[in-house]
Description:
Blueprint: E1 2-10, H1 13-29, E2 33-37, E3 51-57, H2 60-68, H3 70-79, E4 83-90
Antiparallel strand pairs: 1-3, 1-4, 2-3
Amino acid sequence: MRDAESLFTVDDPAAYGAYRRASAGAFAKCGARFLVRGGHRQVVEGALRPRAAVIGFPDMAAARACCDSPAYRAALVLRRPCALADLAILGGREDA
């Protein structure tokens, strides 16, 4: 399994909800499942954005396909005006 980690600063929660609904189809089509979304966290070194998510994908190709899909690109149009994000695809997790 490969994971995508996203860190967000959401300026408009209602508009961000529209992005979440729009992106759900792209995630489902690529076999993604949310491993972490929101929740309590404690930063022990450095700094993070206020919101975080970790999304599991079957493999690196599926994660990349999701990011490049027309459905996800359409969802980004909704997210970009209301939230800043840092996104990384992380490889190397083989135990899930």
